[in-house]
Design goal:
Length: about 180
C-alpha cells in the first residue's frame, strides 16, 4: 500500500467510521459486533482500490459530493451486507447468545484420586519415623510441638525428620515418574 493509498484510507476512516459504527450498532444492537463489521468494511475498502481512487477528491477535501456520496453508499452497503450475511449464516442460527461466559465444567475427580493413590503408595516406602511425622503434619494438621509431644521427641528432631521425609518422598515420586 502506497503512502497515497494509506492517506486515502485514513481520510476515509476519519470521515465515515464513526457514522458507520452508529449505523451498524442500530442494526445489530451489539457494540462489539459493530466494531468488527466496521473494521471488515474498511478492510474491504482498502482491498478495493477503485473506491479509494474514486474518492481521492474527498480525501483531499476539495471536491464533488458525488464521489463522497458513492463512497459513503458503498461503505454502508458493505456493512449492511456483512450484517445480513452473519444473520443468515448457520453459525448465527445455531449459537445461543448469553450475557455471561459459561461456567467451567465440573472437574473429573479422577486426577485427584490417582494423585492420592500415588502419594499413599510413596508414603509406604518411607521409614516409619518419617511417615509418622508427615502423616501427622499433613493429614492430622498438627504443629511441630504437638507432634513432638505425641511422639516424645524434641521439636528439632521433628523438623529434621520432616525435612528428610519430604526429600525421600520427592525422590520416591520422581522414581515413579510423577515429578521431575
Amino acid at each position: 500500500m502506497g503512502d497515497e493509498q494509506a492517506q486515502l484510507l485514513r481520510s476515509l476512516h476519519d470521515q465515515y467510521a464513526e457514522a458507520l459504527f452508529r449505523f451498524v450498532v442500530r442494526l445489530t444492537n451489539d457494540r462489539a459486533w459493530a466494531e468488527d463489521v466496521v473494521q471488515e468494511t474498511l478492510f474491504r475498502a482498502w482491498r478495493s482500490p477503485r473506491l479509494l481512487a474514486g474518492d481521492r477528491t474527498v480525501a483531499r477535501g476539495s471536491a464533488s459530493a458525488a464521489n463522497s456520496d458513492s463512497a459513503q453508499a458503498w461503505l454502508y452497503t458493505v456493512a449492511r451486507n456483512l450484517v445480513i450475511d452473519e444473520w443468515r449464516s448457520a453459525r448465527s442460527r445455531n449459537e445461543i447468545a448469553g450475557a455471561a461466559l459459561p461456567e467451567r465444567a465440573n472437574a473429573d475427580h479422577t486426577d485427584q484420586v490417582l494423585q492420592a493413590w500415588l502419594v499413599a503408595d510413596a508414603l509406604t516406602e518411607l521409614s516409619r519415623e518419617h511417615r509418622e511425622v508427615l502423616v501427622q503434619s499433613y493429614y492430622g494438621g498438627k504443629t511441630v510441638a504437638e507432634i513432638g509431644a505425641e511422639l516424645g521427641i524434641p521439636d528439632g528432631t521433628v523438623k529434621s525428620r520432616f525435612h528428610y521425609a519430604l526429600r525421600a518422598l520427592r525422590l520416591t515420586l520422581q522414581e515413579k515418574g510423577v515429578t521431575r
